[in-house]
User: What shape does this take?
Amino acid sequence: MGWGVSPEPAAPRKSRTVNVAMYTRPPIPQEARNPNKKPLTKPRNRATKPASTTNKGPHDFSCQGPFRWTPIAKASPLKGEACGNHPPQRHKGVQNMATTYQTTRGWGVDYRDGYGVRHRIHVGGEAAARTMAASLEDEARNSRTAIRRFSHTSDCTLTEAIVAYLNARAASKATRDTERLRLTRISKALGQVQLSLVSPKLLADYIEVRRQELSPGTLYAEARLIHRLFAWLTERWFLPVNPAPAVEVPPPRAFRGRALTPDEQQAVQNAATAYSWLKVLLALDAGLRYSEVVALRLQHIDFANRELLVFSRKTRTQRLVPLTRRLFLALSERCQNLEDPEAHVLQWGAQPAWHTSAFMRRLREKVGFHFRFHDLRHTFATRLSGVAQRPRIVQALLGHRPQTVTDIYDHPTREEVHAAIDAMEQAARNCAPGGHP
Assistant: This one.
């Protein structure tokens, strides 16, 4: 084909006739689907059916769970409402547990759960609000009936339910010990109450009492534990309905900690006793967490090499931390009467001192400013960062996991770690008055 010559037209394609009947299946008659079922000759009127013969009153919905439903019939108006040609439906002796309302943002549902606690949910459209109101009312009535039945059949106490929860809890030993301590306090505060009698008001009153005693962070952690406990009890059929979701505790504001100034460190040293000062010193000069402080044993201290073997219960790792001069002297004085290698260095009586709130509260009252025990670890990291050759040394001494692939391949030597601790101690000695840290 040369220039200026048009190509020959292509031959037209032949049309194909598709037999649709080959790819479609004929409908199966109703009699063939279920031969034993009689043909429906008269449509049923669900609105006029007596409420005593149905479990869901005038509304018939196939509920798949909370907030999941499939309407199988045209929804009739809610109890006490008029819509179109339907008159208001009022049932004798029955109180409405879910109603719809309209605002400038749209439609919503105002309902009460099985315990009688009021809730409001914004839905959007009128039809969705009516459907959700009917579903929530059915769930609330079923919950209230189940609560009444369980209150007569279940004789399990709250203490027995807590023991069952702790025995089935799949968590680390530290987590189970913390939950056992908090749940034991809850059971003592509420008494030997029957589990079926635990209501949202009872839990809300307990939270209000604890709000005056705990910090926002500790209160939020305790409220989350209550939610986990009663969610587990509801899943295992100890309770028909979970009473904990009605108890709401907002999460605390994020607090990232701070580092103490040299004057504040000196004030803490002057206010602390010999026993509490060793706790402070292990975090201030070695960067230990409080769980690592109380878990420290005599066999973890190497006085010959001036090193401390730290086992982290949080990251499941271990690390070597060199000792400063003042920490070495304090540990030597504390351990001179200990003979058992398994003995805890810091213990009150026969048990380790797991609680930090009591001595920290007394220490804050003496020094006159607020700080957390974990702020001492922040102070150690800040002091070490100023003299360390590279950040990986600080990361290794704090027991943090490597963040990048390069950190995984970077292993600080023992000489580098000792040099960093000696440089931190020398810098503190130069800043302190009189040449002593």
In short: The chain has a mean pLDDT of 76. The chain has 15 helices and ten strands. The two ends are 97 Å apart (CA to CA).
